[in-house]
Design goal:
Layout: H1 9-23, E1 26-30, E2 36-38, H2 45-51, H3 54-74, E3 78-81, E4 87-95, E5 98-107, H4 111-121, H5 132-138, H6 144-169, H7 176-186, H8 194-208, E6 213-220, E7 223-231, E8 241-243, H9 247-255, E9 259-261, H10 264-269, E10 279-286, E11 289-297, H11 303-347, H12 353-368, E12 370-378, E13 384-390, E14 401-402, H13 407-415, E15 419-421, H14 424-429, E16 443-450, E17 453-463, H15 471-504, H16 515-532, E18 536-543, H17 546-553, H18 555-572, E19 578-583, E20 586-592, H19 596-613, E21 628-635, H20 642-658, E22 664-667
Parallel strand pairs: 21-22
Antiparallel strand pairs: 1-2, 1-5, 3-4, 4-5, 6-7, 6-11, 7-8, 9-10, 10-11, 12-13, 12-17, 13-14, 15-16, 16-17, 18-20, 18-21, 19-20
């Protein structure tokens, strides 16, 4: 068995801390006995709060024990969702014969998962319903498509780190200078750049191995150029370069071993100054990729020094690669954070579809610096049409329709795969000619997908300063498009639900609110009036002799009268009054903050309007005009409950009928 104490826990702890900063996840390292070796300096706040609860702690311990055992058996990384809807990574890490388990927690793949958990289980785990927005800002969101790559990248990074560290720790103690380099490397700050690492390593090599002159070269624009240099002749090496296709570079790539140049003629080929008499080149490789080299000049190296510098270069390459990976992770984390902020702003617009679509094209344009952007959505006839646009006159695009598979946007819609246009050849491939109103040939089209369903296409062109769109732009836009697609779908569902809601509270014949809405609205107005000591009035209206009208003129004519009456009522009452079809030929008006005197005026105005505005087109109905009778009641004078108020208005209506119809009667506390 390997000795676990041979591992450098200080360096490992720093690595995990760096990962915590890069990914916003809490990392805990356990040995194969379940002992925690390294604890996270900062736990996930939501999970930490839940573990303070007795039930939450029990559920978490059960979840951890089960999956920790599974990780030991599987020996491959996996992601699992816990009772909080959060995802946790269980990553086995093998170092020689030592098995460790790294647990990374906890994150959500979408805000929906968090909200779903919070609504279902927050109360039982000691969380307050009122704090959902506060917790929403603290949880970590990682898109699902990134989980696998992140998980295996972390496993690979730690295994590489620990195995290299193990080898270094087991080196012979007589190589004190090697230990000095390792200690120096381990002491580097987590935010150290590749140049910082190179400078520290180069200074140590110059001192420990009595090197005359040395330089660290890294690949730039096809050549290996000096990034840092030191020693007696460092100033003469400022412009030194080695072409990527040179024999020594090809030799290092093929063999993975150092190369030496001792021949004066060869040295002159590399345009080295005459004072340089020898050159050793040590490769800096990571995962079989040569990204740099250490060059040592005018120095004789013995076997041990040569081998030790090889070890140092491996370690340096690994440390530089860690920083490179860390830099990429930070960039991705920053981009994910930016995407989260932008999509969070969009979320609040889902109730207003056009505002949402306009905001999507604006945010997409700003993400990649594009001047022009269009969002195309499918219509009922299957064609794509422009739903929102930026940088182009929208009236020019009103009649643009693209069928599935046609041109670039139609192809993207059909296949669900993004397209990056980098020049004429790409345009010709899709049978598209350059348009005069575009400044450049460069464009990108991205599908808006939910699973396998494509809900639209986002097209961007004319990047700022005429630059082409990059693969990074395509990646960012694809992430953004996924969120935008979900928001568009959410907006569609909301619009549909609003339509269904409208249908459920609307009378289909007259277009007025129905009895269901009346009951809810009357109760709301009653509660408001009771709470703030406000008056309100209720009027119930009945069409006089409407049964006789139906019997003599027919139900179609009766329906026409009902529609006419609805139009007159909505145009006669005040803006805040609520008009409903109460049932049959009866209607009702809820008048908020209205006294009985004001209500009487409204009712009389309506009664006169009905009598005067409905034309007498009937043939057999024995009346010159359509008239209505109205009963009015007011809270609290006529009744102190909803039932009493309705009863009082009904009583007033009945009195209006008894007294000859075509009149308004107001019910008061003292009677009619």
């Amino acid at each position: 068995m390997g000795n676990i104490f041979a591992l450098n826990f200080s360096g490992l702890s720093k690595t995990l801390k760096s990962l915590n900063v890069l990914t916003d996840l809490a990392y805990h390292l356990y040995d194969d006995k379940g002992n925690e070796i390294i604890a996270s300096t900062q736990d996930d706040p939501l999970l930490a709060a839940i573990k303070m609860n007795k039930k939450g702690a029990g559920l978490y311990n059960e979840f951890f024990t089960r999956n920790y055992s599974l990780a030991l058996k599987r020996k491959t990384p996996f992601v699992v969702q816990s009772f909080t809807n959060q995802y946790h990574l269980f990553i086995p890490v093998r170092v020689h014969e030592i098995m460790l388990i790294l647990v990374a927690e906890g994150f959500y793949t979408s805000l929906h998962d968090f909200i779903s958990f919070y609504k279902r289980r927050a109360a039982e785990l000691g969380l307050k319903d009122t704090e959902i927005l506060s917790w929403q800002e603290k949880v970590t969101i990682i898109p699902s498509h990134k989980i696998q790559s992140v998980m295996y990248e972390i496993q690979h990074l730690l295994e590489e780190f620990l195995n290299q560290n193990y080898k270094v720790s087991e080196l012979n103690k007589r190589w004190r200078w090697a230990k000095t380099i390792i200690s120096l490397a381990a002491s580097l700050k987590t935010d150290a750049t590749v140049e910082d690492i190179s400078q520290e390593v180069l200074s140590s090599i110059l001192f420990l191995f009595d090197v005359d002159t040395a330089a660290m070269l890294y690949r730039e624009n096809g050549d290996f150029s000096v990034k840092v240099s030191g020693g007696r002749r460092s100033e003469q090496l400022r412009d030194f370069k080695i072409p990527a296709n040179s024999p020594v570079v090809r030799g290092m790539i093929e063999t993975g071993r150092p190369m030496s140049v001792l021949d004066n003629y060869e040295l002159l080929r590399y345009k080295l100054p005459d004072e340089i008499l020898s050159m050793y080149l040590f490769p800096l490789t990571f995962e079989d990729r040569l990204f740099g080299m250490l060059a040592i000049f005018n120095t004789i190296l013995d076997r041990d020094a040569f081998q030790s510098i090889q070890y140092i270069c491996r370690l340096t390459a690994y440390l530089c690669s860690i920083r490179d990976i860390g830099h990429r992770h930070r960039e991705q984390a920053n981009m994910l954070n930016l995407l989260y902020l932008k999509t969070s702003k969009l979320y609040f617009l889902y109730q207003s579809r056009q505002q949402l679509l306009d905001a999507i094209v604006n945010e997409a344009s700003s993400l990649v610096g594009a001047e022009k952007c269009s969002l195309m959505l499918p219509s009922d006839n299957g064609y794509l049409s422009v739903a929102a646009i930026r940088g182009i006159n929208k009236y020019l695009m009103e009649n643009v329709k693209i069928s599935k598979g046609e041109a670039i946007a139609g192809k993207v819609y059909e296949e669900g795969v993004p397209v990056l246009i980098k020049g004429y050849d790409d345009l010709n491939r899709y049978g598209v000619r350059p348009k005069a109103f575009y400044k450049s040939l460069f464009s990108v089209s991205v599908p808006l997908k939910i699973g396998d369903e494509v809900v639209g296409v986002l097209n961007l062109s004319d990047k700022e300063k005429g630059m082409p769109f990059t693969d990074e732009d395509l990646f960012v836009l694809s992430q953004f498009a996924s969120h935008a697609a979900m928001l568009i779908k959410l907006s569609e569902c909301y619009s549909l639900s609003e339509q269904m809601r409208e249908l459920s509270i609307t009378d289909p014949l007259t277009g007025l609110y129905n009895r269901r809405y009346f009951d809810v609205r009357l109760n709301e107005e009653y509660m408001r009036a009771k709470r703030y000591n406000l008056p309100f009035s209720l009027a119930i209206i009945d069409i006089d002799d409407f049964k006789l009208f139906n019997d003599t003129e027919g139900h179609i004519a009766g329906d026409h009268i009902l529609k006419e009456l609805a139009i007159i009522m909505t145009s006669t009452v005040r803006a805040n009054d609520i008009v409903v079809r109460y049932g049959g030929e009866e209607f009702a008006i809820i008048m908020p903050q209205t006294s009985s005197a004001e209500a009487y005026k409204v009712a009389e105005r309506l009664r006169q309007a009905v009598k005067e505005l409905i034309p007498p087109t009937w043939r057999h109905f024995p009346r010159k005009s359509i008239t209505i009778s109205i009963g009015v009641a007011m809270y609290p004078e006529s009744g102190e409950t909803v039932a009493e108020l309705i009863k009082a208005a009904d009583k007033s209506l009945y009195a209006a009928k008894i007294r000859g119809k075509d009149q308004t009667i107001v019910n008061t506390l003292h009677g009619l």
